[in-house]
Amino acid sequence: MTQKSINHKFARLREESKKGVALLLDPDKVGDKTKLYSLIQTAVHHQVDFFFVGGSLLMRDLVEEVICGIKDITAEIPVLLFPGNAVQVSDKADGILFLSLISGRNPEFLIGQQVTAAPLIAQSNLEVLPTAYMLVNDGEITSVNYVSQTLPLPNHKPDLAVATALAGKYLGMQYVYLEAGSGANSPVNPEVIQSVKKATELPLIVGGGIRSVETAKAAWMAGADVVVLGNGVEKNPNLLIEVLEYANVYNLSLNVN
Ligand SMILES: CC(C)=CCC/C(C)=C/CC/C(C)=C/CC/C(C)=C/COP(=O)(O)OP(=O)(O)O
Ligand SMILES: O=P(O)(O)OC[C@@H](O)CO
Ligand SMILES: [Mg+2]
């Protein structure tokens, strides 16, 4: 993977108004390897845009095993680290979502883990994506807010989300990730997505609680460039196929028009 190719891929998706999909593989949840490989193969076959690898906790050191599992199958689809902490940095990936949890006020997740990770990243070839990571939900306790010990932004106050995202932009962050929390009951409110997109005009990743094509569509329609699928696919692998088939048909229709 050449340098800057992930940034280019995001830029192309946005310029062409295409709908992007990332599959999150959480190394903590790798059970049956045959199932994992078959899921990766399905994602490749249906042209997923990105693989995200990471988890809030990481109880087992399987990050590199998951990355290599992907790399054994494809060299074309970028693998991005989506790290819950600095221990998850690996130079076997193509890039890293360099997250700062700006919805919270815990210095460890605003700058602490980043300082620990930076020297390792400097020695690697990882493409770095500076990302304003914002947890948005109506008070549901998810792994991210428990592990980070932070309060989420309310899901029905777009103005607070906009102020936070703009602060991230003015600090130099180049991507926004709106996160309802893995396995959240309710996804990020489309009104919040739309407001953040309009105000920042930054590439927008949206995840958490996307368990149907309808929810994915609502996020895209509101301005998400990439939707992230995790728990929904773990429970129902067909969801991945349904969402990717919808995105592929939609994206192809743009080429025709
Ligand atoms: C830049 C570096 C090295 C680290 C960033 C550290 C930060 C700011 C992390 C943000 C807070 C956090 C704990 C994020 C985790 C995001 C993530 C990988 C979620 C994946 O899902 P899980 O939260 O593991 O879901 P389950 O509960 O379903 O396992
Ligand atoms: O597991 P789900 O709910 O799909 O969430 C995906 C991702 O945004 C979590 O960090
Ligand atoms: Mg996890």
Q: What would CATH call the architecture?
A: Alpha-Beta Barrel
**What is the total domain count?**
1
- Residue windows where pLDDT falls under 50 for at least 5 positions: none
Strand order of the largest sheet: 1-2-3-4-5-6-7-8
| Biggest sheet features | 8 strands, parallel, barrel
Helical content, roughly? 40-55%
**Strand-pairing-aware structural class:** alpha/beta
Bound molecules: geranylgeranyl diphosphate, SN-glycerol-1-phosphate, magnesium ion
Binding site for Mg(2+): 26, 56
Family: Belongs to the GGGP/HepGP synthase family. Group II subfamily.
Function: Prenyltransferase that catalyzes the transfer of the geranylgeranyl moiety of geranylgeranyl diphosphate (GGPP) to the C3 hydroxyl of sn-glycerol-1-phosphate (G1P).
EC number: 2.5.1.41
